[in-house]
Write a structure and sequence with these properties.
With 231 residues, the chain is an alpha+beta fold. It contains 9 helices and 4 strands; from the N terminus they run E-H-E-E-H-E-H-H-H-H-H-H-H. 44% of the residues lie in helices and 10% in strands. It has a 4-stranded antiparallel beta sheet, sandwiched between helices. The radius of gyration is 17 Å and the shape is globular.
Amino acid sequence: MPRTSRVVIPNYPHHVMQRGHNRQVVFVRDEDYLYYLENLKEWKRELGCKVYAYCLMSNHVHLIIDPGDKIENLALLIKRVAGRQTRYVNRLESRRGTLWEGRYKSSPIDKDPYLIACCRYVELNPVRARIVDDPGEYRWSSYRHRAGMEMLDWLDRDPSYLGLGKTNKEREKRYIESLKESIPKSEWDIIRQAVQRGQLTGTSRFIEEVEAEIGRRIEFRKQGRPKGDKK
């Protein structure tokens, strides 16, 4: 069966997930994580992409990326960063072969109301995996930046985050509070299934608008709104 072509939308955030080959460990040492982030920073600037959120787990990564005007830059960014990581690990471990699954997964995100929900999903990965009790305890995600615990000058502020308040302190406070709320399992399921299946993360209206723009139907399961959205 032929692969379904990936849907990429210019100037929209995309939830990207890439796993290690056969779910093998990708990151072992602190230097492994740091090397990946340095390359992510370099290539996002080189290609003019925006990175809104990330979480590097031991055997997979989650990223929220806006490719900008050129949709091909999403694939190019992932290819460059993943390729460098493969060569780096192969050289360290005197091995050959691929480090990653053959094809990364991605899902375009409806900016309102799903962008904040997707960032929350990404940054709570270590908590769901029971690695830490609080997302601020995990070094390898964007949470500490968004919560005001540290500053990453290369990470972009997404429009939904900026809409949380008029000042950085107000945004940080409201974002921290949103991650402490009880989040329904249905929200996790919608986001996880969308990226796993290469579907859109959004409302039916958003999906219809994208179908009209790209000129083809997109198979999707019925999706609602994340918790807290009253529109």
